[in-house]
């Protein structure tokens, strides 16, 4: 027996999220959980997090090369 309650998941996908059957069946269980609001619980990014990303990965100036390729 599967660990998924398919009737409940299908109802949530089709009626709640308004997914087509094709969209629903292409989702992974993790994607469906995230769409239903059952994500990883990671907090949303705040200004400090954005500032840290900008410092770690600054925008390049025009003409600057990306030598990582």
Structure, described:
The chain has 69 residues and is mainly α. It has 4 helices and no strands. The chain has helices at 6-16, 21-26, 29-35, 47-56. The model has no long low-confidence stretch (mean pLDDT 83).
Mean pLDDT: 83
Order of helices and strands: HHHH
Give the CA-CA distance, first to last residue: 47 Å
Percentage of helical residues? 40-55%
Query: Count of helices?
Result: 4
| Alpha-beta content class | mainly alpha
Biggest pleated sheet = none
The Rg value, from CA coordinates, equals 20 Å
Number of beta-strand segments: 0
Poorly predicted residue ranges: none
Shape: elongated
**What is the strand content?**
under 5%
What does this entry show, briefly?
The protein is mainly alpha-helical and 69 residues long. The protein has four helices and no strands.
How is the secondary structure organized here?
Blueprint (H helix, E strand, L loop, with lengths): L5 H11 L4 H6 L2 H7 L11 H10 L13
Properties at a glance:
mainly alpha, 69 residues
């Amino acid at each position: 027996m599967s660990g998924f309650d398919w009737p409940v998941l299908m109802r949530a996908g089709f009626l709640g999220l308004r997914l087509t059957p094709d969209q629903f069946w292409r989702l992974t269980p993790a994607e469906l959980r995230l769409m239903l609001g059952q994500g990883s619980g990671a907090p949303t990014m705040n200004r400090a997090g954005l500032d840290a990303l900008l410092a770690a990965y600054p925008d390049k100036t025009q003409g600057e090369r990306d030598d990582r390729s």
